[in-house]
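Title: Comparing notes on inverse folding

I've been comparing how different people in this forum approach sequence design from structure. To keep things fair, I'm posting one structure and asking everyone to reply with a full sequence. Here's the target:
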């Protein structure tokens, strides 16, 4: 009986010890997973948590903690600390013969070499070795991380197709292994890359899947990261409303987590969205907060982005001198940013909006030269890579030929059979060299096709409005203005007409039915205007709810008829938006260009300005109508000055002859 009780007691103690050990291990793995997700969003807090977890740990557990310590230091930009932690983890992985730990440490090491040390060759070799080692294990999270790391490296080297292949494989593997954290890691990069190459709809679906995983996991840092990816995806997809909502949610979570080292850039991006929607007061306040936080935590990139957005806000508030100084200083440090060209275009647009057209044109020219230089550099790098590969193959062929030549001489002294064998080997080597050259030539063709597609995409993005699909101001300055000067009107013939159109009561549409309804209205109005114009006419989204049309070779009578058609086309039928049937109209101001035989006539900027004054007159006269200048040849400097002061009075005084067009009933 005593022996039996003793045995039962011993079994109970063993079971209790095992149960507590399992609980401790589960707690450790959960804490490690949480710290891994927090490393990107709150790296300083993650480091503090990892330091606490290291107490009393050794061997493999310590090694896994060191891997995440390396990643947290990486996101803080601490190169030496990140390298030291990765190397220590590698050492523990080799000592304990733990391939999973070793491969994870090598991936962290490779990430640091690639992004912070900029040693791409060493990083590529290290990541490839880690991926091969990962394939020998059953760890789904490790295999997924290896594929994602290869995708990130390919993306950094400009191999977009390879990058997408890697992250797609990673997502498929994570799904098959039912590992939500691994899947979230893969989906973040897959959604981002697909949005960048223009696959908007699939990218947004991936973002939805990522958000569902983050919510189910209940880790705030993971949800913040998912929201940031959703913002980037929606922004690339041309969905500003969803982008703003996602970014605001991410900022709220980051503020709750007190993630100040990660907060400046999202706030600056939020200010950018406010500028795009012309909410300049919110943009200024948000960018000021971003700049303050960036300076507190030493985030130089965040400070530049915030200064750029704050400078744009100042420009729109007519504080142009201070705004230009801030924007110019910020852009000097943002030349390596992938959005640099778009920033220049936005800068030029802001200057043009406040009447600084000459400076804006200089900025647009700079954006075009930077885009062209980037394209040429990419093409040059492709050819340089090809030349290096060809030189390497040529050198290898020469070494092989020299080696076989020595074998040939030896064969001549021995047997004819050896000689024949040598010639066969040389023929095979030559054939391999020919095949390699053909392969390299194929890669050059592929690189040229890719460069052509990218150049076309860049042209489309820089000349088209993302919402309506119409041409934008950049296209007008680059392609319409030169043609305007090169093709003046002929004697006795019409020189053309500028029409400036504005959607009536558009602000009330946004206020009552939301910005999505306003976007639907703008798309429909743009389509109706475009359908009413000729093929040779140019229709441009001038800004906000304004549209500019240039009609070459159109006389006054034709312009009046066209205005009547445009007014009827817009208000002729209602527009369905957000469950409502909205009746929309436009007001129009127009001004013809003088004939070529008129000396000292106004340039196109004066004509557009006069069209703008006529548009304002149409608005004040009740909207849904057009006012225009009847005779551009009579526009003397005195008449233009009088129109600037008061167009209605100038018309009453007989200095400017105006015509009025109402909707065709």
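Reply #1:
Here's my take.
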């Amino acid at each position: 009986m005593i022996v039996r009780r003793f045995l039962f007691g011993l079994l109970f103690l063993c079971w209790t010890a095992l149960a507590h050990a399992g609980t401790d291990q589960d707690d450790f793995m959960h804490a490690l997973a949480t710290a891994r997700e927090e490393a990107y969003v709150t790296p300083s807090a993650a480091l503090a948590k990892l330091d606490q977890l290291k107490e009393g740990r050794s061997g493999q557990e310590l090694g896994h903690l060191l891997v995440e310590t390396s990643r947290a230091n990486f996101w803080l930009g601490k190169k030496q600390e990140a390298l030291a932690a990765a190397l220590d983890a590698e050492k523990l992985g080799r000592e304990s013969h733990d391939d999973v730990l070793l491969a994870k440490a090598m991936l962290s090491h490779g990430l640091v070499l690639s992004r912070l040390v900029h040693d791409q060759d060493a990083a590529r070799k290290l990541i490839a070795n880690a991926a091969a080692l990962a394939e020998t294990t059953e760890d789904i999270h490790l295999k997924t991380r290896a594929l994602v790391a290869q995708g990130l490296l390919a993306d950094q080297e400009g191999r977009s197709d390879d990058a997408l292949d890697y992250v797609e494989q990673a997502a498929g593997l994570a799904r098959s292994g039912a590992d939500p954290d691994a899947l979230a890691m893969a989906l973040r990069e897959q959604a981002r890359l697909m949005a960048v190459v223009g696959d908007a709809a699939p990218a947004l679906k991936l973002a939805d899947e990522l958000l569902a995983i983050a919510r189910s996991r209940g880790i705030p840092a993971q949800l913040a990261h998912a929201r940031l990816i959703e913002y980037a995806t929606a922004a690339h997809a041309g969905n500003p409303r969803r982008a703003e909502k996602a970014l605001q949610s991410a900022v709220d979570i980051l503020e709750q987590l007190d993630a100040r080292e990660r907060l400046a850039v999202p706030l600056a991006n939020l200010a950018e969205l406010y500028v795009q929607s012309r909410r300049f007061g919110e943009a200024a306040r948000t960018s000021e907060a971003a700049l303050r936080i960036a300076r507190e935590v030493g985030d130089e990139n965040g400070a530049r982005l915030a200064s750029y957005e704050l400078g744009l806000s100042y420009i729109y508030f007519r504080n142009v001198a201070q705004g230009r100084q801030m924007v110019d200083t910020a852009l000097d440090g943002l030349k390596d940013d992938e959005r640099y060209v778009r920033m220049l275009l936005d800068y030029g647009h802001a200057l043009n909006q406040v009447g600084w057209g000459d400076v804006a044109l200089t900025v647009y020219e700079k954006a075009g030269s930077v885009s062209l230089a980037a394209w040429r550099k990419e093409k040059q790098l492709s050819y340089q890579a090809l030349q290096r590969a060809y030189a390497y193959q040529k050198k290898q062929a020469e070494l092989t030929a020299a080696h076989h030549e020595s074998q040939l001489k030896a064969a001549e002294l021995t047997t004819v059979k050896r000689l024949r064998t040598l010639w066969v080997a040389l023929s095979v080597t030559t054939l391999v060299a020919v095949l390699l050259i053909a392969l390299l030539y194929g890669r050059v063709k592929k690189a040229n096709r890719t460069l052509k597609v990218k150049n076309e995409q860049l042209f489309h993005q820089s000349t088209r409005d993302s919402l309506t699909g119409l041409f934008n101001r950049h296209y007008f300055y680059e392609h319409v203005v030169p043609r305007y000067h090169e093709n003046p009107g002929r004697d006795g013939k019409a020189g053309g007409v500028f029409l400036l159109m504005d959607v009536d009561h558009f602000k009330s549409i946004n206020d009552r039915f939301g910005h999505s309804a306003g976007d639907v209205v703008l798309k429909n109005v743009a389509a109706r205007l475009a359908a009413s114009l000729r093929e040779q006419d140019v229709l441009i989204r001038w800004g906000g709810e304004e549209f500019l049309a240039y009609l070459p070779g159109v006389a006054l009578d034709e312009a009046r008829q066209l205005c009547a058609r445009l007014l009827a086309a817009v208000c002729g039928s209602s527009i369905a938006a957000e469950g409502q049937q909205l009746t929309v109209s436009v007001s129009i101001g127009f001004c013809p260009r003088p004939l070529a035989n008129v000396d000292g006539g106004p340039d196109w900027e004066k004509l557009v300005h006069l069209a703008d004054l006529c548009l304002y007159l149409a608005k004040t006269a009740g909207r849904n109508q057009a006012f225009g200048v009847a005779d551009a040849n009579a526009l003397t400097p005195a008449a233009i000055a009088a129109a600037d002061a008061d167009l209605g009075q100038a018309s009453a005084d007989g200095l400017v002859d105006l015509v009025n067009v109402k909707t065709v009933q």
